[in-house]
Design a protein that fits this description.
2 domains, 3-stranded antiparallel sheet, 3-stranded mixed sheet, 6 strands, 43% helix, elongated, binds zinc ion, Transcriptional repressor NrdR, ATP-binding, transcription, DNA binding, RNR_NrdR-like
Length: 165
């Protein structure tokens, strides 16, 4: 790590702290030659392996671009997309892998997108999972319905929701 002021190739770490989301370490360094201080941010590398076998660094903006099209016309803001991409990255990093298939990244997007917007989810899933028939959509919608019912169920089981007749 060269000193950005005098290009001295050596520096001394004077402080280290973990970033807010735990995925980066910020180090305060001092150059022993000119005495000036600067910061570096260290992140673990996370590579996405494409179908061709080539790897590229994980990119939140690629996640956002991939999902944005499915969200056209839906009440989804740029902030929502940024948070979704952050959640996807945190989930992948939490799994402790250094490399992940592009296909697995798509899978990691599905769940947060389902919570964000069900129509966008169906659009994304139809492209991503290659839906070929109405039955594929019906299956996906059935799954969404079941998940919605599970989510509405009152913990404890015996009670019925107040809206039930
Ligand atoms: Zn220096």
């Amino acid at each position: 790590m060269y000193c950005p002021y005098c290009r001295n190739p050596d520096s001394r770490v004077v402080d280290s702290r973990l970033g807010d989301d735990g995925s980066a370490i910020r180090r305060r360094r001092q150059c022993p030659q000119c005495g000036r201080r600067f910061s570096t941010v260290e992140t673990t590398s996370l590579s996405v392996i494409k179908r061709s076998g080539a790897g590229e660094p994980f990119s939140r903006s690629k996640i956002i671009n991939g999902v944005r099209k499915a969200c056209q016309g839906r009440p989804v803001t740029e902030d929502d997309l940024a948070l979704l991409a952050q959640e996807v990255e945190e989930n992948i990093r939490a799994s402790g892998v250094a490399e992940i298939d592009a296909h697995e990244v798509g899978l990691a997007i599905l769940e947060p997108l389902r919570k964000l917007d069900q129509i966008a989810y169906l659009r994304f899933a139809s492209v991503y999972r290659g839906f070929e028939s109405l039955e594929d959509f019906e299956d996906a919608i059935d799954t969404l319905r079941r998940q919605a019912e599970d989510g509405a169920r009152v913990p404890g089981g015996a009670q019925r929701p107040l809206t039930a007749r």
